[in-house]
Amino acid sequence: MADIKTAEKNEPAKKLRFFGLGKLRPYVGRYKAIFFIMIFANIAVGVINIILPLFQKYAIDNFIKNQTVAGLPVFTVLYAALLVVSAVIDYFGAYGACKCEMFLLRDMRRTAFNHLQTLSVSYYNQNAVGKLHARVMSDTAVIGGTVAWDTYQGAWTLTYAIGAAIVMFSLNAILALCVLVIVPLVVLVSIYFQRRLTKLNREVREINSEITGGFNEGITGAAASKTLAVEDKLDAGFFARTDAMKKKGTRLGHHRALFSSVIAFAASVALALVLWYGGVITMDGVIMIGTLSVFMTYAQGIVDPISWLVEVIADLISIKVNIERFTALTTSVSDVKDTPEVIEKYGDSFNEKRENWEALHGDIEFDDVTFKYPDGEEYVLEHFDLKVPQGTNVAIVGETGAGKSTLVNLVCRFFEPTEGRILIDGKDARARSVQWLHSNIGYVLQTPHLFSGTVRENLTYGRADATDEELDAAIKSVNAEGVMARMEKGYDTVVGEGGNTLSTGEKQLLSFARAILVDPAIFILDEATSSIDTLTEKLIQGAIEKLMTGRTSFVIAHRLSTIRSADIILVVDDGKIVERGTHDELLRRRGAYFNLYMKQFKEDSITASVAKDE
Amino acid sequence: MRNKTENKKLTNAGMLGYFLKGSVHLFVLCITASMIMTFLTTVIPQIIKFTIDNVIDDQPVSGLVGTIAGAFGGVERIRDDIWLIALAIMTIAAAMLICRYCSLYFNRRANETLMRRMRNELFSHIQRLPLSWQLENNTGDIIQRCTSDADNISNFVSQQLFTLVRITMLLTLSLVFMFLTDVKLAAIATAFIPVIIGYSLVYFVRVSKRFKECDEQEGVLSTIAQENLTGVRVVRAFGKERYERDKFEKQNTYYTSLWVKLLKKMALFWVSSDFIAGIQLLFIIVIGTVFCVNGGMTAGDLVAFISYNTMMIGPVRELGRIISNLSKANVALTRIGQVMNAEEEVYGINEGKISGDIVFDNVSFEYLADKPVLRGVSFTVPQGTTLGIIGGTGSGKSTVAALMDGLYAPTGGKITIGGRDINDISPATLRNNIGLVLQEGYVYSRTVGENIALAAADGSMENVKRAASVACVDEAIESFANGYDTVVGERGVTLSGGQKQRVAIARTIIRDLPYMIFDDSLSAVDSDTDAKIRAHLKTECEGTTTVIIAHRLTTVMHADNIIVLDNGEIAESGTHAELMAKDGIYKRIYDLQMDLPDELKEEARHG
């Protein structure tokens, strides 16, 4: 959550009326009643807050002036009753605001999260996880908090300011003007400072996240820094950031202090004016002492609400960007989408109609497929044909960054072909739902992804009803008994966030077991490149072979030794398929595959000559 | 090299004192300004009272007020020129403006100074803690200590402590004036104070656990979203959208219900505490009115009394919350104390170049008692030669490298360089003579050129480019839009594993050191480039004593001597040819990695 702020400052802000609040209507609309109660409660409390000082006036001008206590009990009871009423109403208002904030937050998060589940994988390729996470967690929190509490605050503030003005004018117009003359001043000063404060606050937040990044670097890079003996240099770099922070922070402090002092001074100006003119007219008998005291209360009480009002508006302006980001997410349309007819028959992401799902046999055919990535300019496939009968092992090889994932992305319907079609068991893939296809595919990533939770929860991710015996069998079939033997609590061992308590090799083996439990008709593997020692690699190799037996499979291979037995090898270079054939055919051809293969073993020839020399 | 001279352990209070160096005088300024302001605040109701009772009404003046009125030409004169009162208020207000500004400004400045010192101290200190400390502690937790715990401490000093001082001052002054005005009424008003403080104190102590719970549950919700987004391909491939939705929904609802429950209590607290304060004011108004009617008080007295009461009651309502938060600061200090009191590595001074053979004599090492990582390892790396080390995960390869660089001290046996015990050579000397390249290839978030030049004596562009070309990373760097000025790392371009490793190699090559260790630092580089880099090293770094640790056999097989580590012991050693003849682990790994079809073996041999 910390990395959100810096990433998104340069996004364009579109013109939206009313700070984009209209976009929130569907969310706010649901809680109309609570909003109404909240606003009403705050108006009522504001009115009571206006009335209470009048009691003081009454006490001075009637009881004290006339030296009588007649009516004091009634006065007391009325006052106390008002306090009770105010407390009760305020409770509903405050509780309402709390509920509004939390319900808005909950609903927006739900909408954003659920919508993300329906977006295509290409959307995730174009948007960094950190940003998406910020949309779901932080933007919503800012919007919810601001909308609820600004409404709460705004209702009270407006009521109080207007009410105080009315009461003052009805008591004495000129004296009222003495107080109200400071209002424009307060507004102007508030606007002036709010602008600067908003900007400075943002800058301070940015430096602050840089400092957090600095700490992160100092800690995670500690070993590297030691071996390089560069501690002093890094100190200097970090100190420069904390200096910048101190400077900006102090500047922010200067503006805040000045703002707050000037506003407080404005209240004193009003008080001085009231005492001056009020004193004169009281002596002249125009108003009584109690009235004067009530004016003094308002003079000091009205400054803060006016200043708050400006703050509320500043808040609303600043959440515009959050609303835009949130709306952009929830209105983005997936580029892989089932047709209404398909959804009708097979169900959507959240409501599968499994009863209508056919079994998937495993014949796949690329029929005249042309494809380019949504953000790319070049066609990476042009009129591509490939038949993959059930049980075929397809290997895809090529240099890092050559675009080996394209075919897999198409088979998985992470992307749709630009032209042409992909047939699954002889039918266009789009004739059946994405869900149906996915539930028949076993997919193992280069960087295995586990969820926090127990080993069991992870293994049964694709099949919730698997028994321990089935888990045992799956573990055994992927050579992961050694991994399980090291787990202190067996299947109930907790693996930490992202499975981080395990090594990459261990995660890989577990993700194989997870895939095999589903018993998928199609198996897809993005082979690991990370440095796993040779013996573990051997274990993984064996597991892969078992997984592929009898299944239609696609392997993105980084080590050529893996794929010698593949039925078809596709060689990818610069995004395009340049060769296809079996291992032996391709070697004989002396083309790209041959070169690739030779490269891995060039060292061997050196070895051979070294050996000969001796 | 900077070294913290004092290595003594500090208590929580001592730690606070240590951090406060350099900001104390600012806090004193802030508190002084705040005290003057508080005093001036309490003067204003006196002027109001004087205006109401003596100027507007005709009551006689006496004492101090009379003296001051006399200075302005007496009450009569003021009555004629009532603007004098407005002027007095404006004067005081102007003084208050200055004091308020000073108090807030110096508070912020002091706080920023404190924060800077705390952050700098923590950063420098953490960098100089021994590597074993870094391994024992979780990164996230340390960052938390450096950020939120540090914030808690600064909050404690600049907000809580400051507010406590200010409230105490305000409370005392208000009470003095209130008691001077009317003892009985003041006693009644005061009676409410313990009730209000006690009520909020009990409340905040009770809900603090719930706040923590809410924070934790938000963490859980955030993790669910994070894992869902990073694992989107897994979620899709297993068709678990619905499961994920339900999981998020459940936690989202639970989290919301926790907050709503807590906020319900909060709302109840707010209004009830408002109510108590309201009742207190009602008591004062009603009883004060009775006193006025009975002649014990004047209207001016009452208005002033109410002003003091309003002035005092707000801060008093704050007190409970502040007191309940004090324990947080103590916890934060303890957590930061644990970091600051950990002992730094004794770094020593750089004694210049060293030379000679590296000798491991029966060296053992264990991170944890009775769990040896190395057992009786002995070997010699003659100056100017290359040693290759190979072995499986957990065989102790990296430990050998770490021991050579003085990152850990051997727990048994002896390591010598040029005949000198490594324990007698300062880490500063060691690390400025030995270039250890770690496997992960850490890149700092700055430009790639700066990354390479980071540890160089001569960081000229020319030198950087030379090092980059030796490490075969020059082409990759030049392909970036901004070339060597491309920002990399956390806030910039993400480099691939191989690119990172090569940048790390370039960064070490540029240092031009007599010893170099590559701890599996070519693992993510393809074998072609790997060979190229090693060929470059051979010509560019002639005479360097080199240790190469690797998984990949081809990386080490040209070394002058190769040792095979297995489970912390040397299983085999010798040249490539000798080891191949032995038919041991080395030969087995070789066969696994070099398994070629016969037809190709034939071809490969001929070129």
Q: What oligomeric state best describes the polypeptide chains here?
A: heterodimer
Mean pLDDT of chain A: 84
The percentage of residues in β strands of chain A lies in 5-15%
State the name of the first-level CATH class of the largest domain in chain A. Answer: Mainly Alpha
- State the domain count of chain B: 3
Most strands sheet of chain A:
6 strands, mixed
Strand order of the largest sheet of chain A: 6-7-8-3-9-10
Number of strands of chain B: 10
Shape designation of chain A: elongated
Per the CATH scheme, the topology name of the largest domain in chain A is: ABC transporter transmembrane region fold
Estimate the helix proportion of chain B, in percent.
55-70%
Topology:
The complex is a heterodimer of chains A (614) and B (607).
Chain A (H helix, E strand, L loop, with lengths): L3 H4 L17 H5 L2 H33 L7 H47 L2 H6 L2 H43 L1 H8 L1 H39 L1 H7 L2 H53 L5 H13 L1 H29 L8 H7 L17 E8 L9 E8 L4 E6 L7 H6 L7 E6 L2 E2 L5 H5 L2 E4 L10 H5 L8 H10 L3 H5 L18 H15 L3 E5 L7 H15 L3 E5 L11 E6 L2 E6 L1 H7 L2 H22 L1
Parallel strand pairs in A: 3-8, 3-9, 6-7, 7-8
Antiparallel strand pairs in A: 1-2, 1-4, 4-5, 9-10
Chain B lengths: L11 H9 L3 H33 L6 H9 L2 H7 L2 H45 L3 H6 L2 H43 L1 H48 L1 H6 L3 H54 L4 H42 L17 E9 L5 E10 L4 E6 L5 H8 L7 E6 L2 E2 L5 H5 L2 E4 L10 H6 L7 H10 L3 H6 L17 H13 L5 E5 L7 H14 L4 E6 L2 H4 L4 E6 L2 E6 L1 H7 L2 H10 L3 H9 L1
Parallel strand pairs in B: 3-8, 3-9, 6-7, 7-8
Antiparallel strand pairs in B: 1-2, 1-4, 4-5, 9-10
Helix pairs in contact in B: 1-11, 2-5, 2-7, 2-11, 5-7, 7-8, 7-11, 8-10, 8-11, 10-11, 15-17
In short, what is this structure?
Chain A has 614 residues and is of the alpha/beta class.
Describe the structure.
The complex is a heterodimer of chains A (614) and B (607). Chain A has 2 domains: 4-331, Up-down Bundle (ABC transporter transmembrane region fold), CATH 1.20.1560; 338-439 and 567-614, 3-Layer(aba) Sandwich (Rossmann fold), CATH 3.40.50. In chain A, 63% of the residues lie in helices and 9% in strands. Chain A has 22 helices and 10 strands. A 6-stranded mixed beta sheet of chain A has the order 6-7-8-3-9-10. Chain A has a 4-stranded antiparallel beta sheet with strand order 2-1-4-5, with no helix packed on it. The longest helix of chain A is centred in the middle third of the chain and has 53 residues, at 231-283. The radius of gyration of chain A is 35 Å and the shape is elongated. Chain A starts with a helix and ends with a helix. Chain B has 3 domains: 12-340, ABC transporter transmembrane region fold (Up-down Bundle), CATH 1.20.1560; 358-433 and 513-606, Rossmann fold, CATH 3.40.50; 444-509, no CATH class. Chain B has 607 residues and is of the alpha/beta class. Chain B is elongated and about 120 Å long. In chain B, strands 6-7-8-3-9-10 form a 6-stranded mixed beta sheet, with helices on both faces. Chain B starts with 11 loop residues before the first helix and ends with a helix. In chain B, α8 (183-230) runs parallel beside α11. In chain B, β9 (561-566) and β10 (569-574) form a beta hairpin.
